[in-house]
Amino acid sequence: MIARKSALIVLMQLTNAFLGYVALKFIAIYMQPWEYGVIGFAYGLVSIFSIFGDAGFNSAHIKRVSEGKEMDRCLSTFALTKLFLAFSMVFLVFLTLEIWKLSGRGFESDAHEKALYIILSSFILSILAQIFTTTFNAKKEIAKQQLPNFASTLARCIATIFIAYYNLGVLLLSYTYLIGSIFEFFTAIILFNYKFGKPSFNYFKSYYSFAIPVAVGSASSLIVTNFDRVAIQIFYGAEEVGQYFAVSNLSRFLVLFISAVTSLLFPIVSELYAKNDLEEIRRVTKISERYLSMIVFPIVATMISLSYAVIHILVSDKYLPAISVLQIFPIFLILEALSSPYSTMLSGMNMPKYERNRLAIIAFSNVILNLILLPKIGLAGGAMAIVFSYLAGLIYIRIVSFRIAKTGLNYRVAMHAISAIISYFAIIYATKFFTIARWYYLIAFSMLCFLIYFFVLFILGEFRKEDFVFFADALNPFKMIGYVRNEIKNK
User: Fold this and answer.
1) Total domain count, the chain
2) CA distance readout (Å), 74 to 65, 418, 478
3) pTM (2 decimals)?
4) How far apart are CA 171 and CA 489, in angstroms?
5) Whole-number pLDDT of residue 479
């Protein structure tokens, strides 16, 4: 069942990524990069402020519910806290913008400021929807947890297609985020079937004690994800933000996939830690690392080796100035896939401070490197900053996990790296003799990259029959449909 839930997460994230790509394609064809840059800047800035909309309480809610605390008290305490956090975020955004304007500084255009307020509204609704979706996550009801996000992505995609096709402007494009959040919020409410009780101050203190260390990590994560867009706006302008935002988004969706899979690992580790089953914790963590690595490596190799064709065919030649971003940026996904299982393991073992420290290291490194590299080498500097900062985080979390949980190096990951490198050079060599000018050629070469990758794994003895059976069972459409139907019916 764990495998099927993980597979559902993967399928939903891939579906959301496809819908996001369709929306991006319409924007790339019918609108200009600077317009997408306005959205990228506004979304990035508001995302940084969404630190105050989470403050670590989402993880605290998952932790306390998975530990078996009274559900109704947990819900009411969490809901009241989220309402307070949402209003705090609104106040801080307005205060910061007023101070910014009073200081004599402004925005590149009026559209930048107006888009900020619209996207802020969408974030508030999403924060409130987390009352429900985080509860689904805590109860390991993955179908319910994924459906609101899917509804949001689908609604935003449809709205974006319409607005981009008729070129209705950047402000209406920003409203697509609000439309998506409305669908997310009401879908979550419809699926929710738990009762609220009386808020408990003791429960709040319990949440608070866990949330504070996590909050620093959450804040650091949001800074890492969004600071580059804000910095590019400061050093360059909306045109460059749009190019960077579009190209980096082609691979950024995998972060959602990684975090979604490890979010399922978190309550599992919490339950095992409550039973003091450290051996099983190590085993589950190693399995998560292996399968994440096995999936992420070939995707990254494919994106980098086919970077020109990916932008030319899937986006637009208007975004080719950012090709260096796609040749560097995806590498950080591998580093995150190798870090997340161990940071999640430590958080599930009541040690969230180590994930906080990892993300703080990444955030600090990322900000410094962006400020140094962006002005000197352009958009590639933002991508390099991401990669080097995540490498620092990986080194830190692996040292800590070895010291605390005795989790040594996983030699299987080396096989994944070797297979990915071989498939990368094979595709680079093949493209010297064949021009990829159509989408079906791009699909064919992508499949070839995957085939080479898994063939090498098979030769190395890393991809075995039981792995094929594992994936086939997890992705069985009939079993998947039955699982989703039963969960929604609450059976």
Assistant:
1) 1
2) 7, 47, 35
3) 0.77
4) 39
5) 55
